[in-house]
Amino acid sequence: MGWSRGVLVADRKYHDYFYGVAPEFARPGRAAYRAPGGYSGAQFIAALSRRFDPVWAAGFVKYDVLNRAAFEASPLVERRNNFSAGIAVTWVFARSATLVQHND
Predict the structure, then answer these.
(1) Residue in 58, 55, 77 with CA at minimum distance from that of residue 68
(2) Is the pTM of this model over 0.85?
(3) Which residue, 41, 43, 42, 34, is CA-closest to 16?
(4) Tens-of-pLDDT digits for all 104 residues of the chain?
(5) Which of 6, 3, 10 has its CA nearest to residue 36?
(6) What whole-number distance in Å separates Cα of residue 102 and Cα of residue 104?
(7) What are the angstrom distances between the C-alpha of 84 and each of 5, 58, 65, 99?
(8) Which of 14, 31, 57, 94 could disulfide-link 10, Cβ–Cβ 3.0 to 4.6 Å?
(9) Helix H or strand E encompassing 48
C-alpha cells in the first residue's frame, strides 16, 4: 500500500501543447489562448497491490485539482478537478529457474 501527493509545475511549451489554442483553431466559444508556464495543479494518489502466486493484483485512486493552475483560463479546461481509479490483474506465466531471495 502506498500514497503520494504532490504539486505539479511545467513550462510554457508543455502547457501550451495541452491547453493552448492557436489563432487558426479559434472558433466561437473557443477563443485563441496561449498558456503560460508555472503551477499545474496538485494530485493525490493512493495505491494498493498484492501478489497471490501466480497472480498480481493492484488498484489505485487519484484526485487531481487544477484550481489556480497557470492554464486555468484556457477554453479547453472544462473541469477544475478530476477523480479517477483503476485496477490491474497480471498472471505470471513463467519463472526463472534461479530466484533471488527477497524479504517482503
Answers:
(1) 77
(2) no
(3) 34
(4) 999 999 999 999 999 999 999 999 999 999 999 999 999 999 999 999 999 989 999 999 999 999 999 999 999 999 999 999 999 999 988 888 887 887 76
(5) 10
(6) 6
(7) 15, 14, 12, 36
(8) 14
(9) strand 38-52
